[in-house]
Amino acid sequence: MRAIILAAGRGSRMKELTEERPKCLVELHGKSLLDWQIEALRAAGIAEIAIVTGYRHELVANRGLFEFHNALWAETNMVSSLACAKDWLSTSPCVVSYSDIFYCSGIVRSLITSNETLSVAYDPDWYRLWTDRFDDPLDDAESFQKSPDGFLVDVGNRPASIEDVQGQYMGLLRFTPSSWDVFETAYENLTSEEKVTIHMTGMLQKLITGGCLNVYCIPNREEWAEVDSSRDLTVASNIVCMFLQRKNLRC
User: Fold this and answer.
1) Which residues span the domain enclosing 87?
2) What is the pLDDT of residue 16?
C-alpha cells in the first residue's frame, strides 16, 4: 500500500502563516501538519509515501518522500494535483490525503482494509467540530448523504439544513487502480476550464450521478481536525491534546 499527500497549495486563507511556507508546514502542537500525516500513515503500515508539491516545494525536501510536482499549483486545485501522481495511482492501491488535516492511524487502517474500489473517510460526529470552527456550522458544511448500505449518494453541495448532513468528508480517500482508471477518464473528459475549477467532491459527485463508480463511506471514530484558518489551528491544537492524552503521552 502506498500513500499520496496533496500538498501543492499555499493556503492563502491562513494569511501570514503561509507567506513563507506551504500550508502543510504550518505547525500544530510543535509539529508540522505534514509530519503528523506522515506519522499516522507510517503507523498504519504504509512505507511508501509520495507528496504532490507546488508552492515553496523546496521546503518539503529531505523527508524521505517521493515527489510529484504540480507546476500549475497557483492555477489549479486538488484534482489537478492528484492527476500529477497518476503513475502511482494507475499501478497500485493508494491512500490519498489532503495536507491540511490531522488524523490518526486507525482511519488509515480502515481505508487500507476496505474491499471497495473507492472509499472515502467521513466524520459522522461532524457537528461538534464544525461548531468549534465556525459561529454557524452551516456557513461551511457541505452535503454528505449515504445510502443504507454505506455508499455515497450526495457530497459537496450546499445543505438546506443540519438534518440534511449525515457527516463531513475528511479529505482522506483510497483508490485502487480500477477506480483511478474511471476517475481519470472522467477527468480527461472535462473541458479545460472544468479541469482547473472542479473540486474533489465535485468529481466524486459527477462519478456518482453518472453511475460510473460506487464510493464507499468509512466513518472515522478517532480524533481529527481540518486546519484552514488561525481559529482552526487553535481548535486542532486542543484535539491533538486529546489524542496525546488518550495515548498517555504528554500534551
Assistant:
1) 2-246
2) 65
* DSSP letter assigned to residue 92: S
| Block residue for cell numbers 523546496 | 58
Buried (b) or exposed (e) across 123-158, using 16+ Cβ within 10 A? Answer: beebeebbebbbeebeeebbbbebeeeeebebbbee
Rounded to whole angstroms, how far apart are CA atoms 174 and 153? 17
φ, ψ at 39 (rounded to 5°)? -60, -45
Q: Note whether residue 50 is domain-resident.
A: yes
Give the pLDDT confidence score for residue 18 in this predicted structure: 67
251 falls within a domain: no
Chunked into runs of 10 residues, the chain (251 residues) has average pLDDT values of 93 66 90 96 97 92 91 92 97 97 98 98 97 94 96 94 93 98 96 92 96 96 95 95 88 78
164 belongs to a structural domain? yes
Output the nine-digit C-alpha cell for 37: 500525516
CA distance 57 to 9: 10
pLDDT value of position 11: 66
Closest CA to 49 of 90, 87, 96: 96
**What is the total count of domains within the chain?**
1
Is residue 14 a contact partner of residue 229, using CB atoms and an 8 Å limit?
A: yes
